[in-house]
Amino acid sequence: MMMSRCGAKAMATAVSHSYLLKPRIVLAASNVRVPTMGVVRDFSKMTFEKKKTTDEKGSSGGKADQGNKGEELIVSYWGVKPMKITKEDGTEWKWSCFRPWETYKSDLTIDLKKHHVPSTLSDKLAYWTVKSLRWPTDVFFQRRYGCRAMMLETVAAVPGMVGGMLVHCKSLRRFEQSGGWIKALLEEAENERMHLMTFMEVAKPNWYERALVIAVQGVFFNAYFLGYLISPKFAHRMVGYLEEEAIHSYTEFLKELDNGNIENVPAPAIAIDYWRLEADATLRDVVMVVRADEAHHRDVNHYASDIHYQGRELKEAPAPIGYH
Known about the structure:
- By secondary structure, the chain is mainly alpha-helical.
- The strands form two sheets. It has a two-stranded antiparallel sheet with strand order 1-2. The chain has a two-stranded antiparallel sheet with strand order 3-4.
- Helix content is 54%, strand content 5%.
- Helix 3 packs parallel to helix 5 (207-230).
- It is built from eight helices and four strands; from the N terminus they run H-E-E-E-E-H-H-H-H-H-H-H.
């Protein structure tokens, strides 16, 4: 009976403390001090600010205030503060989705013509699955390569994330290392997502293209998830063939640019910083580096599939981390 009374008292104390521990954000104008577990926290230091802009007439807010996403600043006693990063030339780094140490110069010397000839039944199934997916894409997008690239990247960013997630879970279940493959696969997914962020600046999708992305991603994510669970070697082989098709698509994109059928506009700022391009880089330069990235992803996935075909596990071969 004594122990139960003590337990009830401890529970009541915990409930009261949990209420006090709940974080809350107040305006800087409020000067509220809330005791928490015997420690007095000054909530007046917790601010939510937004930079205000002034239009030509001198009034703040209004239309001039639109588009200021990312300029809101939240500061709390948790001590998590945004990092202020500068480039080598001393200017402020403006991207929060990637950092300077994650940028790189793409290797354009990679062999674009390498191809894995399907020999086994699994290889042939993977190859013809990819070929069958190309036909509806050609019909829908035809020669609109900007929109085609955008759609391609929404799909291409899925396999690395799914594979990395499943390898991660396997590593946890088995209490073992992954050989770096979790990082390598998530690296691939992030790189493909950056391709999408770049082409979003070039091709603006309309409503039905956005709807198509939602439908395709929903189907492809679940199908690839199940496929990877059943046969990782098949899943990686299919992605290898998908990347070969991506190389072909970007080669056709370059032909259209060279023939003047697509305007060779200046490269988006995000692409210039991510791939360390020249300040006067153009869309053609962007397509070149994206195509080289796809060739690297082709190599990584065919390599991963070969490891499985040899009866080995990914952890037994060092992952090609940073392979660009």
